[in-house]
Amino acid sequence: MGNAEGRAPRRAEPRGNPGSFDELHRLCKEVFPPQMEGVKLIVTKTLSSHFQVTHTVHMSTLGPSGYRFNATFVGDRQLGPTEVFPTLLGDMDSCGSLNAQALHLLGEHLRAKAVFQFDGEYRGDDCTATLTLGNPDLLGGSAPNWVTTLNVGYGGAHASYYHRANEQVQVGVELEANTRLQESTFAFGYRLTLPGASVVFRGLLDSNWSVGGVLEKKLPPLPVTLALGAFLNHWRSRFHCGFSVTVG
To answer: Is residue 156, in this structure, part of any structural domain at all?
Structure first.
C-alpha cells in the first residue's frame, strides 16, 4: 500500500547503542540518595592524568567506623565520558580487606571485566549483550532520556526505570522480587539540581515506609562539597542522619 496523501515516508532512525549494562543500572541508582549516618570525610587527589587516589574516613555511632583507601588507574583509550580503557580499580579498608577489578577492551565490540568473576560484553551498533558467569542478565531497552533494565536470576528479579525530565529533574523507580524470601520491594527516587546555587537534592520513598533525602552543596571556587542527609523509617520507628565533607 502506498503512503497516505500528504504524508512523508517515515524513516527508521537508528537508536544507537544503549551503553554498558552496569552503566544502565548506575543511572537509576544515582537518582536515589546515598545512605548517610555519622560523619564522613572524603579527600580525592589526582596525581596525574591517569592516576587518582581517594581517602575516606567514616565515624559512626551505629556501625563500625574506619578508613578506606581507593586507587584508580585509567589508560589512554577513551570511548566516552565514562569509558576509558584499560581501567584498574583497587579498594582497601582498615581491616585489610582488598577488592580489585580490571576493565579492558579486547576488540571493537568486546569488553571484559575481571573482579572475582568474569563478565563479557558484546557492543553492537544498537544493542549490548552481557554475559556474567553464574548470573544471567536481560536487557530491556533505552533511549536518550530514559533507561529500563531487567535482571533475572535464580533468586528473583530486579527491574529499574530511569527518566530524565530535563536538566534539573531526574527520577528513578526500582522493583525487586526475592523468590527465596517471598517478598517484593518498591522504591521511588528523585534528583533535583539547581546549577545556579550549586545545590543537588536527592530524595526517596519505598514500600518499607522509609523516606529520606540528601542535600549536597558545592562551595566554589574551593574544591569542597558538603552533604547533609536524614532518613526515617515510620514502620520501625528508626531515624538516622549524617554529614560528610568531600575535598577534591
So the answer is: yes
CATH number of the domain enclosing 27: 2.40.160.10
Maximum Cα–Cα distance across the chain: 73
User: CA-based angle 82:83:88, to the nearest 5?
Assistant: 100
What is the three-class DSSP state of 3?
coil
Q: Which residue matches cell numbers 520513598? A: 205
Instruction: Give per-residue pLDDT as tens, 72-105.
Output: 999 988 877 777 889 999 998 887 778 888 888 8
Q: Transcribe 201-228 into DSSP letters.
A: EEEEEETTSEEEEEEEEE-TTSSEEEEE
206-232: per-residue pLDDT in tens?
Answer: 999 999 999 999 999 999 999 999 999
Position 16 in a domain: no
- For the whole model, what pTM was predicted? 0.65
Structural domains in the chain (count): 1
Q: Is residue 4 part of a domain?
A: no
Q: Which domain, by its residues, includes 44?
A: 21-247
